[in-house]
Amino acid sequence: MEFELLDVIVFVAYALLIIGVGLWVSRGKGDTSEDYFLASKSLPWWAIGASLIAANISAEQFIGMSGSGFALGLAIASYEWMAAITLIVVGKFFLPIFIEKKLYTIPEFIEVRYSKNLKTILAVFWICLFIFVNLTSVLYLGATALDTIIGGGDGAIFMECIIGLALFAAAYSLYGGLSAVAWTDVVQVVLLVIGGLITTYIALEHVSSDGNIFTGMSEVFEQVPEKFSMILDQGEIITPNGKDAWWDLPGIAVLVGGLWVANLYYWGFNQYIIQRTLAAKSLKESQRGIVLAGFLKILIPLITVIPGIIAFVMNTDASGLISEGVTSASFFGENGRIINDNAAPWLIKEFVPAGLKGLVLAALAAAIVSSLASMLNSTATIFTMDIYKPFFQEKAGTSEKGLVNVGRVTATIALIIAIILAPQLKSLGQVFQYIQEYTGVVSPGILAVFMLGLFWRKTTNNAAIWGVLVSIPIALYFKIGPNGWIDSPFFITWPFMHQMMATWILTMIIMVIITYLETGGKIQEKSIKLSKDLFKTGPIFNIGSFAIILIVAMLYAMFW
């Protein structure tokens, strides 16, 4: 099924709607830095919950997680379901402290707890991470998906897709700031859920013997029951490219191991995620938004992972093997390598009819553009508030309006760099793995700095600096062995999740040792004073959190 005029009309209508909403809600909201970077601290709970998910769900979920569903099965949903539990932890224990300190940015907490020097170091790091990893990879994956669906996947319109997505995100986010980003996210998340469910529905219709979606789900489960295993044993699932899936999702570690390191870092201390919670009307509104996001995270695998499993069933023979006589040519790359990430684009291109295809493509674009807009706004926020304001504002005599303009220029420069670099990611192969592994090298050390800074009053500034610095060689030590760079008994071959957990624990131990060597364990003057009252939560948050934990527990019990 080709992309037809009706699809173009639907897609253009969506684009105009988003730009119009973004510009309308942000009118008169760019006069102060609080207006531009924190949406005047006026966001209600439902806008926060929707915006959290829209910022999170991007091409790496729609495309990457569907590809992982194709290769690994439902086990990859642990990233989503464990994130729902992580959000409760963030809402209960982290947000009360952040909002009490009236933070604009996550690096700002580092200055409040440790020092200005460490804040500046981490601010520069996060800006580089957003530009060179997050923005570039989202642009690349998004353009690849659109090129596959619209242009046939031969790269003929790849660069046009990159520029189009970048301009789309810039059209409303550069002018409107967080207000435009957050309020358009409400529309975007509704669209991406509807578009995702349409794809899943149509895929189930086509895979079933009688066109019934419930029959289709039952038949998929009967054909590949191993794809619905959540806790993998070693050797249980071998991916189409011959890799043991256990190395990506090592059994019980997805519940009690390194996945917590990735999730706590991402949901608790990632500026482009946490920023919308800092813009809430109140702490209670922010916590309610967290609960809404938790429920939405439980739903996400239905629209990202299940389609990948269905695509696997539709492209394998009776014995469950991929072969050229059965499998679509879309899944074969160079040297016979299976391209798992083509699962979602293949389903959309082959089965979604005209009109609906435009809507589904709009949902994919919504996921991509909302993430781009969030990253641009957060990059601008960190540079303006953590680097420009403390070091240059007074000399330049910049006003509040001037700070907003600095933010807009910063976001524009970041976007231009990302447009230039995004095509270079073609040489990296698995871009989703590139994102995870790059951030996984640095996230354990940063998580250690934050966790001890929040909950251990004795942690010193020097211990935090050394923690950030030594965590990277520790992470590389564990990473070198599995990749076979050095053949030595001193290098332990561990799954990536184990490496992250070990790096996090060792970094915290080193920080504790340095703290005691430096001060003998004295409470630091800049430490955070905690009280039971600070962590009190309302009945809505408590009931919602209990329901999320119960649902996730039931899901794991069903698919263990």
Account of the 3D structure:
- It is a single chain.
- By secondary structure, this protein is mainly alpha-helical.
- It has one domain: Sodium/glucose cotransporter (Up-down Bundle), CATH 1.20.1730.
- It has 21 helices and no strands.
- It has helices at 5-25, 33-38, 45-56, 59-71, 78-100, 106-113, 116-151, 158-207, 213-223, 253-256, 259-269, 271-278, 283-314, 343-351, 356-391, 393-396, 400-421, 431-455, 461-480, 496-519, 539-559.
- Helix 1 crosses helix 8 (158-207) and helix 13 packs across helix 14 (343-351).
- The longest helix is centred in the N-terminal third of the chain and has 50 residues, at 158-207.
- The radius of gyration is 23 Å and the shape is globular.
- The chain crosses the membrane at residues 6-25, 45-64, 70-99, 120-143, 155-175, 182-204, 249-269, 290-314, 359-383, 403-422, 434-456, 463-480, 500-519, 540-559.
- One of its GO terms (cellular component) is plasma membrane.
- Belongs to the sodium:solute symporter (SSF) (TC 2.A.21) family.
- It comes from Zunongwangia mangrovi.
- Keywords: Membrane, Transmembrane, Transmembrane helix.
